Amino acid sequence: MSFCEKCIVRKFSGLKTLNPEELEQISKNKTSLSFQKGELIFDEGEYLKGVYCVRHGISKLTKLSSNGKDQIIKFVSNGEVLGQRSTIANEPTNLKAIALNDMEVCFIPKNYFLENIKKNPRFSMEMLQDLAHELKEADDVIVNMSQKPVKQRIAETILHLENSFGLDEEGFLLIRLSREDISNIVGTATESCIRLLSTLKKEGLISTSGKRIMITDKETLQQVAEGLHH
Amino acid sequence: MSFCEKCIVRKFSGLKTLNPEELEQISKNKTSLSFQKGELIFDEGEYLKGVYCVRHGISKLTKLSSNGKDQIIKFVSNGEVLGQRSTIANEPTNLKAIALNDMEVCFIPKNYFLENIKKNPRFSMEMLQDLAHELKEADDVIVNMSQKPVKQRIAETILHLENSFGLDEEGFLLIRLSREDISNIVGTATESCIRLLSTLKKEGLISTSGKRIMITDKETLQQVAEGLHH
DNA sequence: CGGTGTTTTGACGTCGGTCAATATGTGTGG
DNA sequence: CCACACATATTGACCGACGTCAAAACACCG
């Protein structure tokens, strides 16, 4: 049993604006859950009974396209909250959430979450800013998807993954993704993705070993991402 | 001089949750503005001093891509509010807003808007749901952009435009867009867009005359949009 | 060791982007 | 109302990027 008061989630999410009483209330009513690598947290179209605070682990949020592929929309990891949007909108989820590695999360029932939105203006302001921020990011993605060629998007994705999740001791990206996952981020066929990764490798910008990816020439990679390189 | 109490904007936007006193407060402090067709309402990166309620007209919100094209992210028209996101997030705008036809809008200074978010939980809940909804739409767009071929996206766009803005007396789409604008919605070269529009025409699904577009076979057009046709 | 799944590579065709030429507007001032 | 300039729409030719199919190389695991 752990206490919300000390949880890392407070450091990053809007939950930091809750006062001690509100936190205690939540702490009493949360349940701790674990998910294994690959396990489904919730599916597209489900009605959620609450939100999930990620204490440890990374999940991918995907949406099924009519062509049968699962487009990855974003990742939610340590210290972030899953299911905010659908809970706030009081709608079924728009996205499917899958654990990318073993995860520990806390489940907070809907009413405790919504209660605080109504009662604590600082908290609801924080939620508003959260959504506003996500919306901005989504708009950026739309532009990238529709205007940039795949190679740029791959370069961008690698840099973005470094930014969000960092590196391990050996300098590889901490997050391990299959080629299929990467191609589902950039929205392309797996083979195209593989091919472009290997040209990046030949050009000396990255090196790979299985699912491990290391950035070896960050500066040029950034230029590729911006489309300034050839 | 008009009064917020009777404004059409109240029918559609979150402003409907405001009570008479709050509305009067806003009504006193708003200013009425007009914009001509093609005029800039605000540019990407500007700090807004408030939000704009659209009484009449349609505007396009675009974002400049690194390849120099303005991707159209969405439209904001009668009864909707412009600049919500940046005002709430207290950030410079992410998007550029341009009037597509002559517009009448009311400008509401930031503090009156934010004040009500803090004081009126119903209003802030409404704003949250607004943003949540926009976020869902944006996610849908991401999937479409990354997974569907241009012809499907064009078909979808036409149907979407009919849905959002309706038809005139003759049965043409009420909203008039240049081919360039259409191609900036679907994220493609203008010529490709033109070519695909003319194949849709040859297939008898739409007919065009200048900037006027009429849907002549909605059912098949929907099938094309879903990718079920050939 | 053979299965099962993922990564890599090759060959090929098509979609969509670019450049250029031609039509068709559309608005301006005379 | 015409003539001109200029923007937008349309079409053609060409080519590169990307998707698809299929096979080979490699991993992982029993």
General description of the model:
The structure is a homodimer. Chain A has about 230 residues and is an alpha+beta fold. Chain A folds into 2 domains: about 5-135, Jelly Rolls, CATH 2.60.120; about 150-225, Orthogonal Bundle (Arc Repressor Mutant, subunit A), CATH 1.10.10. The first copy, chain A, has 9 helices and 10 strands. Chain A has helices at about 10, 20-30, 85-90, 110-120, 120-145, 150-165, 180-185, 190-200, 220-225, and strands at about 30-35, 40, 50-55, 60-65, 70-75, 80, 95-100, 105-110, 205-210, 210-215. In chain A, strands 1-8-3-6 form a 4-stranded antiparallel sheet. In chain A, strands 2-7-4-5 form a 4-stranded antiparallel sheet. Chain A is elongated and about 55 Å long. The first copy, chain A, starts with 8 loop residues before the first helix and ends with a helix. Chains A and B meet through helix 3, helix 4 and helix 5 of A and helix 3, helix 4 and helix 5 of B. Chain B binds a DNA duplex (30 and 30 nucleotides) through helix 8.
